[in-house]
Amino acid sequence: MNLQRIHRLLQYPFFQIDVHLKYGENLLAKDSCGTSDPYVKFMFANKVIHKSRTKYKTLNPIWDEYFVLPVDDICEPMILKVFDYDLFFMDDYLGTAIIDLTKLEPGM
């Protein structure tokens, strides 16, 4: 992590991130029919701040969702967790992505 860059970023009074959740590819099949019902949780510091729509019966979901998320701490990574929705049981975990917000350019 570049300390000079972090210092420069911390001069901004607040942060928000514009998100375009596009799609997923080749997700794990967790349902008995050979598909999944995926959705994505966006998290900061183990707190869910946004949940995508659920896409039913697909391993290649297309969300095409746009939204804006507030960022309290630019040094805290944004974590995306993908789950398979289940009506009667606990949702199945499909995977995680971690985004280092300090690598993004302000205003982009």
TrEMBL record:
Ranges where the C2 domain occurs: 1-108
Biological classification of the source: Eukaryota, Metazoa, Ecdysozoa, Arthropoda, Chelicerata
Superkingdom of source: Eukaryota
Residues spanning the membrane: none
Molecular-function GO term, any one: metal ion binding
Record key words, sorted: Calcium, Membrane, Metal-binding, Transmembrane
Name of the protein in its database record: Multiple C2 and transmembrane domain-containing protein 1-like
InterPro entries reported for this sequence: C2_dom, C2_domain_sf
PROSITE patterns: C2
